[in-house]
Amino acid sequence: MLTSVTFADGTTARISYFKDLGHALYTFDDDTIHVMPGYFGQPDRLAVTISLGRPGDISGYRLTGLHVGDYLLTGTVMCTGDGLTPHPHPHSPDKFPLKDITDADSRQDAADYLSDIASHFYNTFA
After folding, report:
1. pTM here?
2. What b-and-e string marks burial along 45-63, b requiring 16 or more CB atoms within 10 Å of the CB?
3. Are strands 71-73 and 31-37 parallel, antiparallel or unpaired?
4. Mind spelling out the 3-state secondary structure of the chain?
5. How many CA atoms lie within 13 A of 43 on its CB side?
6. Burial of 24 by CB count in 10 Å (0-12 exposed, 13-18 middle, 19+ buried)?
């Protein structure tokens, strides 16, 4: 299924949802990320995994990372809890993309953006 969404900050994503897999690709201009449920087989668990990829990604999805302000976020995050707050993914806790953002306001903006993406996925597809 192909659709699109415009987020509160005005950015628009084209979404390719793969119903048989339960995954989606969100494409923002030149950025592509992979979003999927965080706890397979446990729909009562509020969690979403966002794979941001990196330039030169070889996953087959051509993930590029996600530009947020002046930053390029790469890696993987797990968004959990009522606000779908981004945390390090349990499989790669040392590669949390938000830890490299030194400016507190920019880090919060990036966290809010990832939460918005996770919320959209969870409320629309999960």
Report:
1. 0.91
2. ebbbbbbbbbeebeeeeeb
3. unpaired
4. CEEEEECCCCCEEEEEEECCCCEEEEEECCEEEEEEECCCCCCCCCEEEEEEECCCCCCCCCCECEEECCEEECEEEEEECCCCEEEECCCCCCCCHHHHCCCHHHHHHHHHHHHHHHHHHHHHCC
5. 4
6. buried
Q: How far apart are CA 11 and CA 63, in angstroms?
A: 18
Of 27, 35, 7, nearest to 112 by C-alpha is 7
How many C-beta neighbours within 10 Å does residue 11 have?
A: 16
**Which of left, alpha, beta for 115 (phi over 0: left; psi -120 to 50: alpha)?**
alpha
49-88 pLDDT tens trace: 999 988 788 888 899 999 998 999 999 999 998 889 999 9
What percent of the chain is predicted at pLDDT more than 90? Answer: 66
Q: Can you give the pLDDT at residue 90?
A: 86
